[in-house]
Amino acid sequence: MSLELSVVVLAAGMGTRMKSALPKVMHKVAGKPMVGHVIDTAAHMKAAKTMVVVGPDMPDLIKTVAPHPTFEQTDRLGTAHAVLAAKDGLKGLTGNVLVLYADSPLFTAETLARLVAAREENDHAVAVLGFRPKDPTGYGRLVTDQNGNLTAIVEDKECNDAQRQINFCNSGVMCFKAEDMITTLEAIDNANAKGEYYLTDAVEVAQKNSQSCVAVEVDEAETLGVNSRTQLAVAEAILQNRLREAAMSEGATLVDPASVFLSADTKLGRDVIVEPNVVFGPGVTVGDNVVIKAFSHLESCVVGNGADIGPYARLRPGAEIGAGARVGNFVEIKKAVVEDGAKVNHLSYIGDARVGAKANIGAGTITCNYDGFRKQHTDIGAGAFIGSNSSLVAPVEIGDGAIVGAGSTITGKVEADALTLTRAERIEKKGWAAKFREKMRQLTGKK
Ligand code: UD1
Ligand code: MG
């Protein structure tokens, strides 16, 4: 593949079988809308231009695919009509134009590159990605001649009995010679069973113009199109397995791969150990030699080399965990920097804060970051020690090396190396408990 590549992504369908207010292609797999996967694949192939055909009234979809240009297909008159909605974007292109469906997120860049290379090889007008399903019902059949050239694509509804027996089917992915594409598509009519402009008729048009076409085979597993929530789950499972394999081949240990959920953009370093039942939402980057213990949940956060996370830790967006830091059980960190070697080991909420290097945050410490109106910042200096069950009422600053006594509520600035504590005076009444129990036994008759 050496010529220029452009991509048209068809995303006009609402997907009624999803029974959703969202356009179908906005549903997520591996933490990312399906259309995003297809656009990423195009980017991976270094597409010079990626255009998206959308349906009417899909503002969120347009925002999601920005800055890629979108074209509205107002009436759904068929796949050729959909591609021609992007006619203004197709004008003047050279090389290859790939047509992809936004509801088919599993095609790999390698497979698509194979298709593009096959089209280029003999300067074919069209190259089609075909597959051999167990049940070909519903798919367009690929008709080939003795030399393996593609001579026609016949839609299921138009097949004669012999054609219906063909099990080589159109996956939907097609690659066009850019220079001829508009002329070819404009020659397609809608005189067929569905009364639609079939993109697949491009093969017939090319034949008439004495141009050749070719079919390239792909494994059925890549061709899955999502029309229902059940198929969405199937796509998710396939993508998860790919992501787990990739993470392991890059040097992460997943103790129980099937129970670890990754996002398409999860980055795990070398010698990372991920225990069972860990979820990575979008935007997570983990350094080398990190251990993420069971039942932790991470999203939009960065974990530095050698850090120790969990079990049962929650890292929310904006958490930045430094090298060698520890975040233990039932600790929630949001939009906060926990600097190198700091420890937040038990039962804490740290939000809108900085925890300085090597500081120790005692069990049950809470940063009170929200007054019902504003989020305020807590700054904890390097080497500070926050006693258990303390409330740090933001905005508040604890100096380097300061100690906060257990159970304190801190509302003002604490100087470096100071001790601060807020505590009600302790009282003790000797023998009171024993007397109380005796009185209650007499009163209730209980032993
Ligand atoms: C299409 C192919 C068929 C192939 C099958 C693979 C045609 C004529 N047929 O059939 O050969 O085997 O896909 O799944 O191309 N779309 C629009 N606007 C339209 C029509 C469709 O954007 O006017 C989009 C749909 O949202 C969908 C895709 O194009 O993502 C395919 O359309 P669909 O109606 O599912 O085509 P099939 O009949 O399945
Ligand atoms: Mg379909």
From TrEMBL:
It is found in: Cytoplasm. Its main location: cytoplasm. The keyword Cytoplasm applies. CDD domains: GT2_GlmU_N_bac, LbH_GlmU_C. Binds 1 Mg(2+) ion per subunit. Residues 1-229 are annotated as: Pyrophosphorylase. The active site is at residue 346. Catalyzes the last two sequential reactions in the de novo biosynthetic pathway for UDP-N-acetylglucosamine (UDP-GlcNAc). The C-terminal domain catalyzes the transfer of acetyl group from acetyl coenzyme A to glucosamine-1-phosphate (GlcN-1-P) to produce N-acetylglucosamine-1-phosphate (GlcNAc-1-P), which is converted into UDP-GlcNAc by the transfer of uridine 5-monophosphate (from uridine 5-triphosphate), a reaction catalyzed by the N-terminal domain. This is Bifunctional protein GlmU. It comes from Thalassospira tepidiphila MCCC 1A03514. The gene is glmU.
